[in-house]
Design a protein that fits this description.
The structure is a homodimer of 597-residue chains. Among the domains of chain A are: 132 residues, Butyryl-Coa Dehydrogenase, subunit A, domain 1 (Orthogonal Bundle), CATH 1.10.540; 129 residues, Butyryl-CoA Dehydrogenase, subunit A, domain 2 (Beta Barrel), CATH 2.40.110; 147 residues. Helices cover 56% and strands 12% of the residues of chain A. Chain A has 18 helices and eleven strands. Chains A and B meet through helix 8, helix 9, helix 10, helix 11 and helix 12 of A and helix 8, helix 9, helix 10, helix 11 and helix 12 of B.
Chain lengths: 597, 597
């Protein structure tokens, strides 16, 4: 069973050495957010993750959440952890002080999320879904709604959900059939059944605020005819006390591959009372407010699984004795060598390590852009918005797919023991598997990337990012020690742009071309983005080593991991580049009835 | 829940059109094995798989095998299926008629295994492990042992196990500590604890014959000091009736990621009475007799999962309506199009299909070699032995890794629904995950490939296989329609040989080079082997189409799938070729304490 230890040194390396977070926070007006405060937050966050959450990850999987007489019973320790989360202010960490939050930068929220996701991702839906609800109400709700609901959600007194999916309407939210009918008092009656509702019912808090997509009478068909409603589990009185139980019930919890501690609910709305959020038929925009926030978090789930599995596999590889090193006994006093001597075991560990640290660099880069979006000037905001738009689908899909790969490598390092539940490695595979599926499957992310984020703007967003990487390459062109990274990186960004143009050109003539190439293009983009971040990290490490500053072994490891990434993982782009250019014929030419006989 | 339907048309295509099995069987002296008989066996085998096994796959996962008061209770339907399996002669299908078997070719056993593994892999250990025990006794036991035990094992009256692993001795079987001490009567007392024993205890049959690796007093250290013993659960009387319960008990069943219906046992031997199989200290050779048989079967598990997941995903993709085709509504009368219109969904389905049919071609090719090994002349046997030696690790590791990939794609086609247990897609992922781990992890397979199968013979085995492929390319060099396959295939085998030489050359100077490159080399080998088989299948399909023979749409689909394979999957070799040549430095240079801080 891996015992999670927050990778504080690596987190601090990124915040302090790579991203100069101190300056970043000061420049954005977070006057109190200095290194001392950040370190204190990290230490406390790590403690919460390690002591309150890591300790109930396995039992959460074993016991699961259960529906008993219409009420959800969460696993032992889960409610206690939630109480601690609220009491210590984690619930409102990054939200406005006027609503009872701590007003801390979003980037620190991302760091905190990485830690709690690693420790116990099944527990975490309670927080992340509530955050989505807060953001949607904040962005689209009226002043009364904000004043009443946000303080209760921000403090965690009440929790929130996102009720989008129906059994026949998943990726295609335009098919939603749940009905909303106006009542005389300005409220609406909501009727329909929603599925896959994370924390749709639970025993953590007194009230649950459901944000529900539904269709008003006469609404246009498709996604432009859906509206968003706020539907409380209990109708609150004006003073916040709870009055009537609303007509929304949890009729079942889904049995799932993993994430068993998280109650994934079927919710029946039977004329439940709700209130419109924002304008009629404008639910899609509100949904994307929740969704974009959630997508970033889901990418972090992939990173968190990678880190946890790496930690578990590393400990095992140092302990487990099997066979001798190819170069002769490394531990002749023992009956066999620890398996970390074997090149293939190291290949697996280094793959996990390179993905974890590369993924962390990407997720935190995005987190810092969220700070800019909140507090930067107009030009900074524009740049941040562009970067977030481009990188969000990459971050979501690439980190989660790498998370699945890394978690499977973790099992593989354990050999047959990895398959056994008590070692905790297979749970990571099962828990992370959902992250490639929810909040838009990774195929949807890839289509978003090649469609809205590439073709729709003629490649402008990508070009802007490539210029940034090109600038980095130019700045370091004379650095001989860095040439091992800068040269392949330069080639990669050239090829990336050329591939983007292949896609954009072909998209004009063949509407299927983009879809056929989308996933390969996203993967390609992910590998090159990591290459950029690894080169940046290597440069910082090189500088520190040259200056003899800090823990030199740490910086040396950074450079070695960067080398491994460039030599062993970045080459995957070669195949992707060929494959994505194959065109749509080879996927479209087969008739439906030719798939099987 | 995917309902399994045996892919008889594809099986017959391979046997009849590609491999000319009829001629093959006749030439080897299987005089009664003609197409009519084969078709009858396939039809009955499919019926058994579909009616007895497919029907209890889900319940097997849900209920699992349980240890109750020291006895294993298997899930509903499992024992009934076992009875039918024995009564209908499947148990002894490919074993000698003198022992009560059917004497059918091993290749047909592989086909039958594919079907039952797809239908319910958790059930199948009872057969495959018994087969391993039969082979080991047959190859290494004395005549009395064979005469007494084989008829009872071949008919399925009793079952067998392979007891190799101990908690500290997995991949490194030389660390086995279980003790064997000679008794006065020529038998031995076996003491120790074995883990991960598939079907180590069950309620299917009256007696279980454990084949146990143990160490005699004064035996040499390591793998050359282990001996193999036959340890029955009940000591049989001379007439086969059961006398004393032997001192071997199942103390626990493992909780696992999947394969929950299969009782994976911890077995405690406490001075259990056993008999030596073969010579003292010669247990390793006997173990490999079991292991090689099992490895081929485990590869087939990967194929079987690929097929099952493909079938489930295909049905869903034809039914599920979400969004419109990129080219405009394909089913305007419906509220949305079936998702099979989307290029990325087709990419996933075609990947599954190409892996299933390519994997089938490889597994059956190997199956046919087993027939030759049993009945060919000396030269044929030598060729078959060489091919089996080379392809066994590729078949085991590549088919299982592709099985995991395909099963995950099947989940992905279902979107969020794929994560829900009732749809049965996630079970396939969990069930197939073990196949990359047991009977030698896929890393062990890769090391076997680059070590024993490549370097140890100076590349002779590989060169022989490449010459065969080169011959195929030469024979078809003038076939313009086939050039789309022959040209890239020719390049690939040239590169394969060149990479093999890079490995062999570097292995001399750097003992770590091989291990660092092993998995990439195996993957590379797998992709090119499939390319060869896909080109062969495309040639047959082309010939049939030209002749207007048979179901033309089927042959057209073969060519289209081959095109997809060559354009979208074979390119993965580009990255692997670069990555495997990176050398060992990038995996070995990091100190153990630099992996984490």
């Amino acid at each position: 069973m891996p015992t999670y230890k927050a990778p504080l040194k690596d987190i601090q390396f990124l915040l302090n050495d790579v991203y100069n977070a101190d300056q970043h926070y000061q420049a954005l007006g977070y006057s109190e957010v200095n290194r001392e405060l950040v370190d204190a937050i990290l230490t406390e966050g790590a403690k919460f993750a390690e002591q309150e959450l890591d300790t109930c990850r396995a039992i959460g999987d074993e016991v699961g959440s259960k529906l008993v007489d219409g009420k959800v019973v969460t696993p032992p320790g889960f409610k206690e952890a939630y109480n601690a989360y609220c009491e210590n202010g984690w619930a409102g960490m990054c939200f406005d002080e006027q609503y009872g939050g701590q007003g801390l930068p979003h980037s620190l929220g991302i760091v905190f999320h990485e830690m709690i996701f690693s420790a116990n991702v099944g527990w975490c839906g309670i927080g992340t879904l509530t955050h989505g609800a807060i953001r949607a109400i904040d962005a689209h709700g009226n002043d009364d709604m904000k004043a009443f609901y946000l303080p209760r959600l921000v403090t965690g007194e009440w929790t929130g959900t996102m009720c989008l999916t129906e059994s026949h309407a998943g990726s295609d939210v335009g098919l939603v059939k749940t009905k909303a009918e106006a009542n005389d008092d300005g409220s609406f009656s909501i009727t329909g059944t929603k599925i896959f509702i994370t924390q749709g019912e639970h025993d953590f808090a007194d009230n649950i605020i459901h944000l529900v997509l539904a269709r008003l009478p006469g609404a246009p068909k498709g996604p432009k005819g859906i509206s968003l409603f706020l539907v409380p589990k209990f109708i609150p009185n004006a003073d916040g006390s709870l009055a009537d139980r609303n007509a929304v019930v949890c009729s079942a919890l889904e049995k799932k591959m993993g994430l068993k501690s998280s109650p994934t609910s079927v919710l029946n709305f039977d004329g439940a009372q709700g209130w419109l959020i924002g304008n009629e038929h404008a639910g899609l925009a509100a949904m994307f407010t929740m969704m974009n926030s959630a997508r970033l978090d889901v990418g972090v789930e992939g990173l968190a699984a990678t880190e946890l599995s790496f930690q578990g596999a590393l400990e095992y590889a140092k302990d487990r004795l099997q066979m001798r090193a190819p170069t002769g006994a490394a531990a002749p006093e023992k009956e066999a060598d620890p398996i970390i001597v074997h090149p293939d075991v190291r290949r697996m560990l280094l793959t996990q390590k390179a993905f974890a640290e590369g993924g962390r660099a990407l997720a935190y880069l995005l987190g810092l852009q969220l700070d800019v979006l909140a507090h930067g000037d107009a030009e900074q905001k524009k740049d941040a918005k562009d970067l977030v738009a481009l990188l969000t689908p990459i971050n979501k899909a690439f980190l989660t797919d790498r998370g699945l790969e890394a978690a499977n490598l973790g099992v593989q390092v354990f050999g047959g023991h990895g398959y056994i539940t008590e070692h905790g490695m297979e749970q990571i595979v099962r828990d992370v598997r959902i992250s490639s599926l929810y909040e838009g499957t990774n195929g949807i992310q890839a289509n978003d990337l090649v469609g809205r984020k590439l073709v729709a703007n003629g490649g402008a967003l990508l070009r802007k990012f490539l210029d940034r990487i090109q600038g980095f390459c130019d700045d370091n062109a004379g650095n001989a020690d860095l040439a091992q990274f800068i040269q392949p990186l330069s080639k990669s960004i050239e090829q990336w742009w050329s591939l983007a143009n292949v896609l954009m050109t072909n998209a004009k003539d063949d509407p299927n071309f983009l879809g056929a190439a989308a996933v390969d293009f996203l993967e390609y983009s992910g590998y090159v983005t990591y290459a950029y971040l690894w080169a940046q990290m290597a440069l910082v490490a090189q500088t520190k080593l040259a200056a003899g500053e800090g823990e030199l072994s740490f910086y040396d490891a950074k450079i070695k991991t960067a080398q491994f990434y460039y030599q062993r993982l970045l080459p995957r782009t070669h195949g992707l580049a060929v494959s994505m250019q194959a065109g749509a014929d080879c996927v479209m030419s087969m008739d439906v009835d030719q798939f099987s006989f």
